[in-house]
Fold this protein.
Amino acid sequence: MDSQPFIPSKMPPSTSSNTPSPESHSAESAPDPAAPVPGKLLGTATLTLQTQQAARLVRGRAKTSDKPAIIGLLSFAAMCRTIWHGVRADDPYADWWRLKVDGAIREARAVLDRERRSLDPLFARDGAVAVQPARSEKPVRIALNFTNPDAFRAAQVIGHFDGLACGLLSLAHAGTLGRDEARHRLERSGRAVRRVLQSAVGYRYLGLDRSAVRQGTALAVQAREVMGDCPQSLLDKAYRHPVHRPPQPGAATAGTESNSVDPDGAQSIDELAGPVGIPRVPDADSHCEDDHEP
């Protein structure tokens, strides 16, 4: 008997309860509230310095009876933190001061880059004697626990100055560059860095916003007396920082602000705040130290 091919019969659509309904599918795809969620990100940043000239820019100097204060990196970071609080409150004066800080950082980078490029031909002048920038036998490593990018940018500027100082002192030690010329270049570069650290001086957080300034409230009058007339362009439109603008009130914010202070511990932000603009930078502590040359 010939075998015949098997022809499957058509089965009715299954009505089994195993088929998920649209409602159950959406419930299954919903996120599980008990699922693990990554915690907040934690990172580290360290500034490594070779020269005492650069280390002094981190420490700063407290005001004494015969010497003016020199703003250090840590005090600068604390003042920038106050400025950022003002930015979050929509204070146009805070945006104005951030413009000053940004301009000083850009200017310092340009000065240091020009100085650094001018040293490259000096290091390559004599092929028989290869001079390399000196390095400290015990460099200083400083943990940076900042809460705003302007403080980190200032730390980068100090790091660039530190590398330039190593190069200048090495060339002066080898006789490739005159000692007076090296000292002059180091002082000129140091002044540019100190202008960065001074750029945050003068801002006062008063708790006002653009609306209060436009209305001429009592706080606005006080701000004008303390910090001057805010540029109209900043009242019309918020300045947008080239790195990042902090979230406005009501938006998601980062963790708790750091309470780090200047280890010299002699001055508060209010004591450091001065008149509007960038004060004159003292020339003290800017000279090259012969006993620290390579």
Remarks:
- Residues 251-294 have pLDDT under 50 and may be disordered.
- The chain is about 45% helix and 5% strand.
- The first strand starts at residue 46 and ends at 49.
- Residues 111 and 189 are 7 Å apart (CA to CA).
